[in-house]
Design a protein that fits this description.
Outer membrane lipoprotein wza fold like; wza like fold
């Protein structure tokens, strides 16, 4: 009788676990409202706002001329400790670049101190190139963010902080870097946490099951954005089912041991 009850409880727990962990294909599919026609044209209305340089940014600045040796010292930025892309250990990895100080300035050899806060990287490039022409012949200047970072947390395959070399980055780009959502990730309610200049936090919600994501003001990310993918009900149910199964098995084993102890008396 006890063996029958034990087997029945294990069977029911297994069925519960199986049912609770099933994810329908519809829930896992992205952009469900796009037509299944061979070609569909969708107007993307999400506005990309060009990033501006702020204090504590790290800039990668490269100046090239006809004579590379003449600007070798100028291109040697400081080695700064920054958590690198997809660092699973969280260990600090150095980035070479020029740190924008609290006054919004950088210092370049020969050229001197330049105010770059509030400028785009293109505007900073134009400013540095104008100053460099005083000392070098036909200089070519490249300016990029060296520490454009986005953090991805929750139900993704590789949660981490990612350092990205380009500035126009969408939430889909970053989810791709993180190895996509797990089957337990809630696709209809992805949170974006954004820090504003006035010391406030802004929270946005995205639904990648719908093509409306391309119209969201949070489709394009900004530096230091945090993406959080919440677990769906299936994972919660699966966790509860696992707990129930363990309790059931433990109770059945305890009952069997009690019966065995009574019979051995």
């Amino acid at each position: 009788m006890n063996n029958t009850a034990f087997l029945r409880n294990c069977f029911l727990s297994g069925i519960l676990l199986l049912l609770s962990s099933c994810i329908t294909n519809k829930k896992a599919t992205y952009f469900q409202d796009i037509s299944e026609a061979q070609q569909t044209i969708l107007k993307v209305s999400a506005k990309y706002t060009e990033l501006t340089i702020k204090p504590d940014d790290i800039l990668s600045i490269t100046i090239t001329t006809i004579d590379p040796q003449s600007v070798s010292a100028l291109n040697q930025g400081a080695s700064l400790p920054v958590v690198g892309a997809a660092s699973s250990s969280g260990a600090a990895q150095p980035l070479n670049g020029f740190l924008v100080n609290k006054n919004g300035e950088i210092q370049l050899a020969m050229i001197g101190v330049l105010k770059v806060a509030g400028l785009s990287t293109f505007e900073a490039k134009e400013l540095i190139q104008k100053k460099a022409k005083i000392y070098y012949k036909d200089p070519d200047v490249q300016v990029r963010f060296a520490n454009f970072r986005v953090t991805v947390l929750g139900e993704v395959n590789r949660p981490s902080t990612y350092t990205i070399p380009n500035e126009q980055v969408s939430v889909l780009d970053v989810l791709g870097l993180a190895g996509d959502l797990t089957v337990y990730g809630m696709r209809e309610n992805i949170m974006v946490v954004r820090a504003n200049d006035n010391q406030t936090k802004e929270f946005g919600r995205l639904n990648i099951s719908s093509a409306e994501i391309f119209n969201s003001p949070y489709f394009y990310l900004k530096q230091n954005d945090i993406i959080y993918v919440e677990a769906n009900k299936s994972k919660i149910a699966a966790s509860d089912a696992n707990r129930t199964r363990l309790i059931t098995i433990g109770t059945s084993i305890a009952s069997a041991l009690i019966v065995l102890a009574i019979r051995l008396r």
